[in-house]
Amino acid sequence: MTGEEPAQAPGDDYRCGYIAIVGRPNVGKSTLMNVLVGAKVSITSRKAQTTRHRITGIQTIGSTQYVYVDTPGFQTRHSNALNKTLNRTVTNTLTAADVILFVIEAGTFGPADKQVLDLLPANVPCILVLNKADRNKDKTTLMPFAQEVASHHNFAAVVPVSAKQRFQLDALQEEVRKLLPNNPPMFDEDDITDRSEKFLASEIVREKVFRFVGEELPYTSTVLIEKFEQEGNLRRVFAAILVERDTHKAMVIGQKGARLKEISTQARLDMERLFGGPVYLEIWVKVKSGWADNEAGLRAYGYE
């Protein structure tokens, strides 16, 4: 006997389920999930196709556990093996979700948004999320715009938000809660993701590559963690940035190694914040062409 009170079982009103966050590239899906979860579990950058994996973010509030699933932006521009894999990730996530958040930019609904909208299954409740609503200067246009988009699908709710400004996120979560099934929690109360620290480390490095190298670097560049060790509170991370050509390698390294040093510094700081302890990080750059063009290469680098 420890004298501790036994853990309380969740009541009949406990709600828990998967919430898929979908939309075209660069509408703010990853930022929205990070703000909802309260931690940076999905990387962000201005570069399209930054998110490449099915990323889960978990938030437990009272009698509700929200299990958000960030997905890659649905791709229509390229048809290589990488994009086919990413699009398959999106469609598989949609069919397995309990609730869907269809995210668009407030005031903008184009052909790429419509292509994602057409993927939404009719039997999964979906909320229309108008992100970046704070940028919409004429608020009187927001309701007619929402009504126009809503005419294309039977949405359970329409919620204008601003992920960056944390505007209306409580209202969004309340709408989500109404649609979640009565289930016990799937994860511990303190969990924020089901991804490993090794995976999160690779994503953080990849984010910094995209942020500091930008549009010059092909989207097929990726990061491989060759070794991840933990000793007490210290993590040692050894990462390889994989690029297609020698010219890309020079871009990443920069003049006298300055750009690679900046990537490494910023990635290490992000890891220390997320992991809650010191990080020793070594990064180098390798040329590895063609990995994104075949299924075997994708599996080798952790793509579903």
Percent in helix: 25-40%
Mean pLDDT: 82
Report Rg.
20 Å
SS-based structural class? alpha/beta
Strand content: 15-25%
Protein name: GTPase Era
Organism: Herbaspirillum robiniae
Function: An essential GTPase that binds both GDP and GTP, with rapid nucleotide exchange. Plays a role in 16S rRNA processing and 30S ribosomal subunit biogenesis and possibly also in cell cycle regulation and energy metabolism.
Domain KH type-2: 213-289
Brief write-up:
The protein is of the alpha/beta class. The chain has helices at 29-37, 81-96, 111-117, 142-150, 169-179, 197-213, 246-253, 258-275, 295-300, and strands spanning 15-22, 55-61, 64-70, 99-105, 126-131, 157-160, 222-231, 234-243, 279-287.
